[in-house]
Amino acid sequence: MEKLIITCALTGAEVTKKQSPHVPYTPEEMAQSAYEAYSAGASILHVHVRRDDGTPTQDKNRFKEVIDAIRAKCPDAIIQVSTGGAVGMSDEERLQPVELYPEMATLDAGTINFGDEIFVNSWPSLVNFATKMKANNVKPEIEVFDRGMIENAVRLHKMGLIDGPMHFDFVLGVPGGMPATMEDLLHMVRSIPAGSTWTVAGIGRFQTPMAAAAIIMGGHARVGLEDNIYYSKGVLATNGQLVERVARLAKELGREIATPDEARAILNIKR
Ligand code: KMH
Ligand code: ZN
């Protein structure tokens, strides 16, 4: 089995310091939390950015500040910027970090109910996002919250807007999206084109079980405070602790951890 790529979703757009003091906001906090995750075995850092007061933003300058701070501590980590941003942002706002030519960016592959809100990703938006990523040589991580989104990605691939082999992230357990069960994960894995790679991000208490399933099934795992703030019931986690646990589980199960360069080779990313 190929080595395990661990992605750490450092902060997201929704969780707050009120919920957990470990949620990083400032460039310094982001760099420190990224360093702990990277040292524990994360080769990809999934980056959203916040203002100092925690407000989510897609501002290009703020992204640059955060990426520079992370780079100083984690020189070879793969930076994956979010183009999902926060619910309600415009496409132009969300696409700003792609102008920094990151190695990877997320491409959210369809519209879903997202808790009480609606996360809008219309077909014309998907074409727009994929076109910009391709033009800037950015590898998309296709974020899939529901089965039909795989078909949107396949259609973009057939149009020549996403190169193969594609890389998917199944985000399972969002209220409004697919649940985080073994049956659903298996269905997703069987539905992607042959040769594709995949990661799973289980939301909340499903984070560790889904990561364990990925380790066993030959997929890759995403953990981090964006998706889950707890280490165990009622016990808050840091990003470093969440990554460390997955790395430990992988070792116990005989799966080696990919370095950033090994992750680049697996995902076909040329620096
Ligand atoms: N914050 C969510 C609305 C992504 O990073 O691309 C979208 C999200 C997905 O977090
Ligand atoms: Zn995200």
TrEMBL record:
Its cofactor is Zn(2+). The keyword Transcription regulation does not apply. InterPro entries: Aldolase_TIM, BKACE. The keyword NAD does not apply. GO terms for molecular function: 3-keto-5-aminohexanoate cleavage activity; metal ion binding. Coiled coil: none annotated. Keywords: Metal-binding, Transferase, Zinc. This is 3-keto-5-aminohexanoate cleavage enzyme.
